[in-house]
Amino acid sequence: MKSFLIKTKVLTTILAVAMSISAFAQKEITGTVYREGKPAAGITVEAHKSSEMFMTSFDGKYKLTIDPEKCKYLKFTFIDESKKLDLTGSEGNVINFSFDGTPIPGEGDGGGDAAEVGVDLRTSQELVKANDTEFMSQFTLYDQFYKQKDYKSALPHWRKVYNKYPKSSSNLYIHGVNMYSAKIEAATDKATKDAYIDTLMSIYDRRIKYFDQKGFVLGRKATDYVKYKLGGDEISEDERKAVLKKAFADLQESIKLQGDDAEPAVMVIDMQVIKSLFLMGELTKEQVVGNYGSLSRITDTQIAKDPKDEKAPVAKAEIDKAFQTSGAADCEALIAYYEPKFDEISGDIDAMKKMLRALDRQDCTESELFAKASEKLYEMEPSAEAAFNMARLFVKRDEFDRAKEYYQKAISAETDKELLGKYYYELAFFTYAKERAYSKARDYARKSLENDPNSGRTLLLMGDIYAQAARTYGENDFDHTTVYWLAVDYYQKAKRVDPDLTAKANEQIATYRVYFPDKETLFFQGQQDGQSYKLGGWINETTTIRAK
């Protein structure tokens, strides 16, 4: 019995010592997990040879107790992606980790590299030559599944290559973008979608880190960021603004680095983002106009370099559309932008044309800048466009004979039907408004419609010409009123071809319908409502009889 008690005491002492040693061997580690250089929430942290698990909170922090003798690594998991950080045993009690490999704040570039323990920076050719079986095996598996579009099976193998062999092939990043884009589009909730977007952005960043091409890659990154962050999900105005500002910074840097090689699609997104930020009050008119000028110069250069390339002209049209509808493209802003640059661009025919077209689109034709630029352009290149601008200049100066002379020069030199329609329209309007020569104005308006049959403003002008000419047509009051039928016909046509003119056309119809003859007058004139009626003389058109 005494022997048994002694043995029991010995065992108890040994157990206590063992427990004491075990407790002494335990080590509490803490740290912060980062993504894109920011604390990351929702990352699961596990330790090798431990049942403990911790999910990071909003501040990215975690805390675990490990046995440093047994624990060989920490495992970090975000949704369906895991990263492993091997431990050497020499780490302190604080272990920070960058999930995507970007630098950890306060640790410089070393923070990102430290999180990529065991990275092999050899190219695929070097790895194959060295017969690296791990690389060849994982790459082959991911590549085969990827080609079959079995992304679920491809991703685990892709991640191993992506994490350990980041410089093996640039296709690694192209394929990663495609696979995560598919996951984003298939995501059913905002949190998951945002997580995948973060991963997509980190793939672009890592591509820049290992393969450079920063200007090109930043453009693609920003384009996808806007596409996925603003596409579909309802977000607050503040969130939208933050997305646009972040994208704007990357787009601007991309275009600056790429210069004349900037991708057309990137420039279109840039102008659309600029428009949105201006409407939110984040950019000034001058900034919008300045950026528009830069984008326009690049697209013009690309078009001149390769006239067969369809992308640049499409981009130019979209950039112009975004600028013109931005609200920043008013006369004041355009003049403030172009006036200081006049001496610089006055010797460049293409730049002068671009400036005049921008001023023309915003009805800045009465500005001194427009007049000065028109004269200068005509000196350098007496083209149809230059002659047209000179005509407008002389209209402004009330030099009507000179104006008509240049309108005719523009018309005789022009071959484009749409532009001819525009030139004839202005000559018709000038003749109608300034000279009250209704017959001649009508002839020019007809010429305009021959070249541009769907010009709503020309049809509206035809109605105005006839309405104003009514009092001079025919021999009596009844003859005068018949012209209003024809005027209303043209107002009706105008709003059919151009719905934007509906309000104006309806206003004119209401004004001149009151002059229609009444039923009694029609009876005494031997006319019947609904019948056709021919107007003779210089008008020489047929209309329909209507009573008011």
Automatic annotation (TrEMBL):
Q: Which residues form a coiled coil?
A: none
Q: Does the keyword Disulfide bond apply?
A: no
Q: Which UniProt keywords apply?
A: Signal, TPR repeat
User: What is the residue range of the signal peptide feature?
Assistant: 1-25
Mitochondrion is among the record's keywords? no
| Intervals holding TPR repeats | 384-417
Protein name per UniProt:
Uncharacterized protein
| Gene source species | Mangrovibacterium diazotrophicum
